[in-house]
Structures are given as structure tokens and as C-alpha cells.
Amino acid sequence: MTTTAVRLVPYEEAVERYDPVLGLEVHVELNTASKMFCGCTTTFGAEPNTQVCPVCLGLPGALPVVNAKAVESVIRIGLALNCSIAGWCRFARKNYFYPDMPKNFQTSQYDEPIAYDGYTDVDVDGETVRVEIERAHMEEDTGKSLHVGGATGRIHGADHSLVDYNRAGIPLIEIVTKPIEDTGARVAAVARAYVSHLRDLVRGLGVSDVRMDQGSLRCDVNLSLRPDPSAPLGTRSETKNVNSLRSVERAVRFEVSRHAAVLDGGGRVVQETRHWHEDTGITTPGRVKEEAEDYRYFPEPDLVPIAPDPGWVEELRATLPEPPAVRRQRLQTDWGFSDLEVRDVIGAGALDRIEQTVAAGAAPSAAKKWWLAELARRANDAGIALEGLPITPADVAELQSLVDAGRINDTLARQVLDGVLAGEGSPEAVVSARGLGVISDEAELTAAVERAIEANPDVAAKIRAGKVAAAGALIGAVMKEMRGQADAGRVRELILEKLS
Ligand SMILES: [Zn+2]
After folding, report:
1. N or C terminus of the chain: which is more exposed, having fewer CB within 10 Å?
2. Who surrounds ion ligand 1 at CB < 5 A?
């Protein structure tokens, strides 16, 4: 029996004494308008069981038909992952009973995946790690069970359960890596970077929303340890449904620590699936892992094989967007950013926003300044992604154009940002509504400077005596009086003119 007592070896110590081997299985729900084998719509969040038909409910005699758009999407994913595309392949039935799977088998692919033997280059903290791809295959999603009445939402302790089949039959692509070796202490960072990379890559193809929070991208983490890289692979655990980038990293760290403790104690790691607990940051045993033969796979008799025309595959290859690494390099060159700056931008998830802000007319350095220094902090405080802030790249470009034109300074620009984020309209609208423009009326400025000199005779005397650095105090007084709405450089000039 497995024990639930969690004895752990600290991660850093574990990766020093053991060689971790990682494997990642990522499920991507495609954004096709209809399901994998029927014409039902796929809109997220619809009333339960309103998007179903005899095919996806598994009613007797219903016959499935393959969604051509889904095949196109998986081929594009496969090509983007440098995979070979099968000239001929079949679907297979994976037999198991589960209440949210009405047919009691899942239509999947087994030994004939449509895409296989690929790789993708992942940026891990500025270094490139090549991850080899075993396969990408087509299957269908299951429905969703809802357990009602219990405290935890799990079946244990529930009064009754409900099933929603809207999701049953939505096209799902499973992308499986080969064992990822030689990562050492970076294993957790590599796992996170790969999932993040894959998400960006699939999003770039436009074939899925890849929303981890909505389950359109889901990750299973396989991990094993061995004494050293020359030893055979150890027994792996498979942690299911780890559904945020941060959790992927944490789950790897936890499993490394747990495996090391089991091995240190002379025990054997059990091959099993495990549940990830977001709240406590631990995994607990699920079921002992079935072997492939337990699913009694056999070729799906109701579907014809898929034989994509090579010419069509080449046409699809021509539709692939620029790979993320190439795009990053191109933007870095265009913008004149250092490696470190680019890493900061990517770390903040700001690459798209900055690119769009530059396209809207802002200088790259200015675009970076607003998104990284100001907006990333506000997004972080609000616990949302940059994309979630109610401000567009065009707004940011407009804000910078107001600064460039001398109509507002940086201090005022921050207040303008507040206004835009509060829904008061475009930067231009906020400037006029709040009366935030820089006061460039020379008479008004001169009067304010004279008042500041009068109020601070000691400081004025120092400046007259040649201590120009003391002007800062007078500039501060003027800016305060004018509530920041003055050009500090011009104020300084006026002060020095008066006192020289
Ligand atoms: Zn249907």
C-alpha cells in the first residue's frame, strides 16, 4: 500500500543526488465551431446538455463523421512542432467506463497518431532547451460530472451527481513529449517553460483559446528519478490536470521531493496517477495506472482512415506563423533591446502588448516603460494578466504621444493612466476631463517661480551664491503649487534666469 504520510527531501538536495526525468502530456481543446464527430456547437458555458445529439450521447446506431477543420488544426499543430505527418492513420476505441463518457469508450488514436517524432526549442531563462515530441493525436473530450451536496465538490460525501454532456465530443489534441532528460536542477523550470511555450505556440496558430483556467489547455506531469543519467529510467508517477503554469512548476518540485524521500527510505515508487491539490501544494494517490492493454484498444470501425493529401499538408505548412523564438529574435533586433530587457518583457508577458503599442506609433523603449514599469505592477496588484487591464496598446501609444508633444509630463501621465484604467475614456479625453495638461503659460509659470523665491529666501541666496544644486528645492515648491502640471525643465531655467 502507498502511504499518505508526506515525508519530503528538499528539492535542491533531491536534484543533487538524483537525476530527474520529466514527461509532459498536454491536452488542447480545439476552438472548432462544431464537435469532433458531430455537428453540435462547442460554445463554452452554455446551459447543461443543450449542445448534444445522438452521436455525442452515444445513442445506438448513431454514426460519427470526422470534423475536417479539427484534422487541419492538428496537422498545423504537428507541423509547428516539427513532427512528421502520417500519410495514413486511424482512430481507435479506448474502452473504459466513466459516467461522463456516454459511449463507454473514447474515440482516440492509439498506435497510429496523425503527428509524431517532432521537437520544439524552449527558452528556459535565456537558454534554449530542445524538447522532443513523441506524438500529437486526435481524440474527443468527455462530459463533466457535477457532484452536489458535499463540502468538497468531490463524489465522496455528495448527495447526488449530475452530468453535463456539452463538452463530450469536443475535439481534443493530446501532445506527448518524449522523456525530457539532462535537466537536473532546472527540471521544474523546464516543465513550466515548456507548457508556457506550447501555449504561446498553439495560441499563435489560432486553433485553441488555450485557457488553462477554463480547461482548454490541461497538463499531466510525469516524473521519475534515477540515481544517475546512465541508470535505466525509474518508475514514474503521473500527476493529472495541473492547470496553471505555477502549479506545473510546483507539482514537479513536489514530486521530485516525494520520490527522493521514497527512494531514500529504500522504498519503491508506485506507478500511479496522482491528484494535484492547488491549495496545499501536494499530490495524493489516485488510481494505480492502467497499462495500455487494460483499455482494449482496437481500430474504430465506424470511421474511415485519415489520409491527408501531401499537397494539402504542404499548403498548411505555408500557413504556419513565425515560430516564437524567431519572432522574439526579430523583435529584439528591431527594438534594440538587450537580452536582459527581452527576458524581462517575456517574463512579464508583455511581448504582444509592446509589439502592438509600437505598431500604434510609440517608440519601443517608451512602450516597454509603460507596460513593464507601470502597467505590469498594476496588473500584478489586481492579480490579473496584462491583457486583462482595461487599457489598449493604442491608448498607451496615445499617452506617449501626449508626453512627446510636451502636453503632459511623466507625473501627469501616471494620473492619465489612472483615469484610463478607471474607464474615463482615452488619454486625450482624460487630460481634458481632469484638466491635466502641462501649464505652458510663461506669465503663470514666472509668477509661480517668483512666489517660490520670495517664500524661500535662504534657498534663493544659496543659488545666487553659485550653489545651483539648491534649485531642486525651489523646483519642488513650484511643481507642488502647480500640482505637477508644469514642465520641470522650464521651471528650472526660469529659476536660474531670475537668480543669476
Ligand atoms: Zn453531438
Report:
1. N
2. 38, 40, 53, 55-56
CA of 53 to the centre of ligand 1 (A): 4
pLDDT digit string (tens) for 362-385?
999 999 999 998 999 898 888 888
What burial letters (b/e) apply to 79-109, b meaning 16+ CB within 10 Å? bbbebebbeebbbbbbeeeeebbbbebbbbb
Taking the centre of ligand 1 as the mean of its atom positions, its distance from the CA of residue 35, in whole angstroms, is 7
CA angle (394, 206, 140) in 5-degree steps? 145
Q: For the segment 320-335, what is each residue's pLDDT rounded down to a tens digit?
A: 998 878 888 999 999 9
Question: Cell numbers at residue 449, please?
Answer: 517661480
Q: How far is the CA of 115 from the centre of ligand 1 (A)?
A: 26
All residues at 6 or more sequence positions from 161 whose CB lies less than 8 Å from its CB, including other chains: 99, 145, 146, 147, 148, 155
Ligand 1 centroid to residue 240 C-alpha, Å:
27
pLDDT the model gives residue 366: 96
For the record, the C-alpha cell of 72 comes out as 487541419
pTM of the full predicted structure? 0.76
Q: Count CA atoms closer than 13 A to 399's CA, side-chain side.
A: 31
Dist CA 469 CA 126 (whole Å):
42
Ligand 1 midpoint to CA 25 (Å):
26
Q: How far is the CA of 52 from the centre of ligand 1 (A)?
A: 4
461 half-sphere exposure, CB direction, 13 A CA radius? 4
